[in-house]
Amino acid sequence: MVHIVEAMPTFTREEIEHLGDLARIALTDEETARLQGELNVIAESINKVQEVAGDDVPPTANPVPLEAYLRPDEAVTPLTQEEALAGAPRSEAGMFVAPRILGEE
Question: pLDDT tens digit string along 38-47?
Fold first, then answer.
């Protein structure tokens, strides 16, 4: 198994400020300190997961298997133009007529 990140380093104050500059976000001293702590907790969590994720653990994007519940793809005859327009409040020349929402140009 290939680890994407071997060991996450501790984020320095300068790195947090640099990230803020890259994102064009002005960070106060309190925000920088808070983000530094939060990012370091995230990095430590990644390290813990990587310690226990051995070669026998398959990679996964979601811990709960997800299934797409779709109806079977079966060919059917589509509506005719007349059937599609039957419930329209107004139609003209085989098309739906919608009210104008923009003024005269």
Answer: 999 999 998 8
Domain count, the chain: 1
Of 4, 10, 31, the residue nearest 20 (C-alpha): 31
67/76 Cα distance (integer angstroms): 25
Domain that holds residue 45: 1-63
Single pTM value for the model: 0.46
Asked whether the beta carbons of 14 and 50 are under 8 A apart, the reply is no
CATH number at residue 5: 1.10.20.60
- Residue 16, Cβ density class (10 Å: 0-12 exposed, 13-18 middle, ≥19 buried): buried
Q: What residue has token string 């994102």?
A: 23
